[in-house]
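ingest -> validate -> predict -> emit
validate: passed (alphabet ok, no gaps, 93 aa)
predict: started
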Amino acid sequence: MFAGSLYNFYKHGFYVFRIIKKNKDIDLENFIKRIKIKTLLIWGETDEYFSMLQARKFNKLIRNSELKIIKGNHDWCLLYPEKIREILENENN
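emit:
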């Protein structure tokens, strides 16, 4: 079940990334400010697509969010899927 969830996460994530890449003028700030649910941002410290500056900005824009910075780049969850489980299990305890 976890592998299926991870696949769906990436399928959706890559779709969103393609839209953002094609539409560079998209107003992410306006979109992100509208997020009202509790949000966990997990960011690779060496992400080559979205900088740490953007991570901190997103964290400020999403009212009920928490930012976790981990070692790795943009594809950290593909390389270390067990890290997602570890983070989420710790959040639920």
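The longest strand covers residues 39-44.
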